[in-house]
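Take our chain:
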Amino acid sequence: MNIAFFLTPKSEVIYENVESTMRQVLERMEYHGYTAIPIIDSKGKYVGTLTEGDLLWKLKNTPDLTFKNTSNVKVGDIPRRIKHRPVSINADIESLISLAVSQNFVPIVDDNGIFIGIIKRSDIINYCYKSMCENQ
């Protein structure tokens, strides 16, 4: 099976740029109810996933940082504790599932590392569930 079947395209994904501010990403994540968000650079390449935990650790470990001045912190300057690896759109389903086990979503990139969307773990699980029900 081609993993593109599961793809949520970039145009339908909430993501942020490394040049955005911590405050912008906090507000975007709150508004959409997300706990993690893909981060891309100015050329559209996937650079990582920022999580609520990353934001909390940045607040805890930065003296004098409060919500009011999070607009002074660039997303690219926030350390990410976990490296969420992307997969190529040409990857096999096994590669996708091995990452989906530990990630809520798997970032998908093209052959040049350009972010093209995500595959949600819930979509994989729902597909497997429906397949199991149909085969009974």
Q: What stands out?
A: The longest strand covers residues 46-51. The chain has one domain: 3-134. The chain is about 30% helix and 20% strand.
